[in-house]
Automatic annotation (TrEMBL):
Residues 48-67 bind DNA. This is TetR family transcriptional regulator. It comes from the Bacteria. Residues 8-18 have a biased composition (Low complexity). Pfam families: TetR_C_14, TetR_N. Residues 1-24 are annotated as: Disordered. The keyword Transcription regulation applies. Keywords: DNA-binding, Transcription, Transcription regulation. Residues 25-85 form the HTH tetR-type domain.
Amino acid sequence: MPSDRRAAGTAPRTGRPPLSERRRAVTRNEIARAAVRLFSERGVAGTSVEDIAVEAGVSLRTFWRYSSGKESCVRPLLTTGTGLMARALEDWRPGDDVSGIVDEVWHATDEAVTDLPTVLALVRLAQREPGLRAVWLQAHDDAEAAFAGALARATGRPVDDLRVGVRAAMINSALRAAVEYHARRTADSDDDAEGLADAMREALRTAVGGLA
């Protein structure tokens, strides 16, 4: 690995998470899916933490162990691909076809594709439920920081470099716009995983192409 990337603080890539960590992730995702089902049926105001725990098949104690609140419990569904996207960005260079980032992430996220209908339902809910909107935007705010770190490691620039920050913001905003667009487009039709991938590729190409 080049010395400039080491200087930027590249963290070693790890293998598969330990079993206990995977089990925790499974529980968090089950709680998140249960919450989305109930929010879709009853709305956020009409759903309690107790309702979500029952729907997920966990105790209230378990719910609070894995979640900090009714709306925030959906966050795991919104962050599945952030780490994979950040790792893909470490290998991307300006001038490369940015759509390759989507291809690399897409082929590594079988679980995310399985959860896609639930995620898109959640994104649609976030357009009219302020609490969920806040969680959605916070997830992207955190993703932007992760993307900036990846781009800094890739280029050897400081993470607070303006060019790093602008590129991270462009990529992050493009991905958010693509997901929201696809969620709206599929509101009354079958969810189309490849259609989302196409929207993400087009959004990233548009962002990288600038205002020309």
